Amino acid sequence: MPRTESQFEEIREQKTALILATALELFANEGYYPTSISKIAEKAGISKGLMYNYFESKEDLILAVIGKGIRELTEHLDPDHDGFLTSEEFELFINGNFRILQENLDYWKLYFSTMMQPPVYKLVKAKYLHFLPPLQQIVEGYFERKGVNDPQLEAVFFDSLIDGIFLNYVMSPENFPLDKMKSLIINRFK
Predict the structure, then answer these.
(1) Which pTM does this prediction carry?
(2) What pLDDT does residue 16 have?
(3) Which residues in 31-148 belong to E strands, given as ranges?
(4) Which of 105, 119, 121, 127 has the smallest CB count inside 10 Å?
């Protein structure tokens, strides 16, 4: 019996997810440059030609991997999309992102290694940095409503602190007091 259009779409979604997960694992643990399309295809158990049916290039693939991670992170900020961050939404944002950090350590390895490789960062920056200003404004508005003297500086401080915590956890997850840090962040900024 021939497959239906929905069955083909389901297969396509499964293959895409497999390719993205495999690329993430290899990019995070072996690096962007040493990881070839052939290596990703082999580890995913598909042909190199089939890979190109899903992604045009290795650059296209890393952008998809990074984009998926960015979307997962940002969905926890302002979940009702009203441009206004409440204390409860702030706590949900922190809890959600700390959970994502623990569940997807490979993404964060890739994130930090991407930021340290200028050509890769330039590629990612060109595609995804437009996400940041609206999110930054929401966080600044949150701090402004909290009565902070310099909400912009507080938002930069907050972002830098989160990046530092996440980087330290990525480097040594078994020795880093992540739950205590999460509580400290919530208590400090909520």
Answers:
(1) 0.84
(2) 94
(3) none
(4) 119
C-alpha distances out from residue 72 to 121, 150, 175, Å:
19, 29, 26
DSSP 3: P
- Contact of 27 with 65, CB cutoff 8 Å: yes
CA–CA distance, 134 with 140 (Å, rounded to integer): 10
pLDDT digits (tens, 9 = 90+) for 61-72: 999 999 888 888
Tell me the residue length of the chain. 190
Angle between helices 105-115 and 5-30 (to 10 degrees): 60
Q: What is the pLDDT of residues 131-171, one digit of tens each?
A: 778 888 999 999 999 999 999 999 999 999 999 999 999 99
Burial class (CB in 10 A: 0-12, 13-18, 19+), 83: exposed
